[in-house]
């Protein structure tokens, strides 16, 4: 579950970072357009994560249950294994879909705030890009804690991935 | 009144829950002492001999728990029952 959260959260954060960097480099683009594009991408990432995880996970669980039923020579659909095979794909799908969606919504929050007249210390796009870097660093810290390694080193590694992404976009 | 005091069961179960958890789960089904012995270990399953001892074992409850945890009861190998006089009102 943690793996799904990190992998898809990272997907969401990097996608937003890429979009925001692209918009920032493109010059004077209306905030509504940026919010609309980012929101569209966020929803698409959420639905994609939800549906792909549900379809793949339920197929895997069904297969594992069928193999177990074959070994047990019994119908396990009413057992704890059967219930788990039905419920776990749903749970995994929710985590997989919500992680990139939530991550994206957090990252584009400065854009909404700016559109609603809230004063930010930085212009809206750089603010959102900074939040994206913070989220990616946070995911790295989380990974470091999960792997019981240095949280700082783990955070810096994910931050480096984000910087390389931005550099590639700048070069293009 | 006939009381079921001891049962020896032959059970096939998946590797999960573990023998330790499975024993705990069975013991939770009533006031009983449960002893499990792994007789055979296969790729996806294990065969257990389960000895249940208690003042009055509820077999239906035990069987429902075995099924719920994905295991299946292959045979009842030993039964010990005791007949006691009905308590007077």
Topology, pairings included?
The complex is a heterodimer of chains A (172) and B (89).
Chain A: H1 2-25, H2 31-72, H3 80-107, H4 109-115, H5 124-146, H6 151-171
Helix pairs in contact in A: 1-2, 1-3, 1-5, 1-6, 2-3, 3-5, 4-5, 5-6
Chain B: E1 2-14, H1 19-27, E2 33-41, E3 45-53, H2 59-68, E4 72-83
Antiparallel strand pairs in B: 1-3, 1-4, 2-3
Description:
- The complex is a heterodimer of chains A (172) and B (89).
- Chain A is an all-alpha fold.
- Chain A has helices spanning 2-25, 31-72, 80-107, 109-115, 124-146, 151-171.
- Chain A has one domain (2-171).
- In chain A, helix 1 packs antiparallel against helix 5 (124-146).
- The two termini of chain A are 35 Å apart.
- With 89 residues, chain B is α+β, with helices and mostly antiparallel strands.
- Chain B has one domain: MTH889-like domain (Alpha-Beta Plaits), CATH 3.30.70.
- Helices cover 21% and strands 48% of the residues of chain B.
- Chain B is built from two helices and four strands, in the order E-H-E-E-H-E.
- Chain B has a four-stranded antiparallel sheet.
- In chain B, strand 2 (33-41) and strand 3 form a beta hairpin.
- Chain A binds chain B through residues 67-68, 71-74, 76, 78-82, and chain B through 12-14, 16-17, 42-45, 67-72.
């Amino acid at each position: 579950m943690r793996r799904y959260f990190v992998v898809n959260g990272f997907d969401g954060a990097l996608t937003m970072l890429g979009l925001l960097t692209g918009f920032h480099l493109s010059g004077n683009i209306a905030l509504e357009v940026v919010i609309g594009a980012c929101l569209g991408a966020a929803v698409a990432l959420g639905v994609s994560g939800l549906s792909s995880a549900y379809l793949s996970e339920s197929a895997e669980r069904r297969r594992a249950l069928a193999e177990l039923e074959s070994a047990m020579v019994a119908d396990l659909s009413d057992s704890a294994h059967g219930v788990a095979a039905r419920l776990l794909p749903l749970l995994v799908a929710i985590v997989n879909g919500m992680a990139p969606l939530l991550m994206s919504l957090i990252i584009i929050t400065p854009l909404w705030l700016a559109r609603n007249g809230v004063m930010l210390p930085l212009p809206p796009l750089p603010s959102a890009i900074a939040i994206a870097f913070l989220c990616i660093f946070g995911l790295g810290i989380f990974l470091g804690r999960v792997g019981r390694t240095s949280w700082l080193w783990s955070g810096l590694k994910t931050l480096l991935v984000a910087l390389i992404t931005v550099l590639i976009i700048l070069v293009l | 009144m006939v009381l079921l005091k001891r049962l020896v069961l032959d059970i096939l179960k998946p590797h999960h829950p573990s023998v330790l958890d499975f024993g705990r789960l069975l013991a939770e089904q009533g006031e009983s002492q449960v002893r499990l012995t792994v007789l055979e270990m296969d790729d996806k399953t294990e065969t257990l001999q389960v000895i249940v001892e208690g003042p009055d074992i509820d077999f239906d409850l035990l069987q429902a728990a075995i099924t719920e945890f994905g295991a299946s009861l292959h045979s009842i190998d030993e039964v010990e029952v005791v007949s006691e006089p009905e308590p007077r009102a």
